[in-house]
């Protein structure tokens, strides 16, 4: 593809290539945060149910 050249003069492709890992990292961070919050909520609920008769 001719528009995927590393240097096309305006640096647009370089900017896109630099932003893609940041977005992926942000998605990973959000996913891990959501998973940890969900796990903490489930664990706290299980502990509460185990303590309460």
Automatic annotation (TrEMBL):
The chain crosses the membrane at residues 26-51. Keywords: Membrane, Transmembrane, Transmembrane helix. It holds the Pfam family DUF2474. It comes from the Bacteria. InterPro entries: DUF2474. This is DUF2474 domain-containing protein. It comes from Orrella marina.
């Amino acid at each position: 593809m001719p528009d995927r050249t590393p240097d096309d003069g305006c640096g647009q492709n370089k900017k896109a290539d630099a932003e893609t890992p940041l977005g992926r990292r942000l998605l990973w961070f959000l996913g891990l945060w959501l998973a940890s919050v969900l796990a903490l909520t489930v664990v706290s609920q299980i502990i509460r149910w185990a303590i309460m008769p």
